[in-house]
Prior knowledge:
Blueprint lengths: L2 E5 L2 E3 L5 E8 L8 E6 L5 E7 L6 E3 L7 E6 L4 E6 L8 E7 L2 E2 L3 E5 L2
Amino acid sequence: QVQLVESGGGLVQPGGSLKLSCAASEFTVSSATVNWYRQAPGKGRELVANINSDGSSTSYANSVKGRFTISRDNAKDTVYLQMNSLKPEDTAVYYCNAYLSWGQGTQVTVSS
């Protein structure tokens, strides 16, 4: 089973930026659509963005469209989520998902 590890979360002020990484190990995800989800306290898990296997197709939740960019480097078996113009409502644990595997999540907190 593929192992996914997210990194890059942290505390940032409103309007700031963070870049999350999702690194795969054990098995490659180069042939998989990879999804980024987030879960805020007391809320359900929300699909934020996804990217197809060769990176030619991406999609975004309306709440992040124009601010977040998903990309991938198949040579490194890593998927990224560039988050700009962050808002307090972006505060959540961010998870990546591919096939049936999930990472452990990385906390993003947007606060002044």
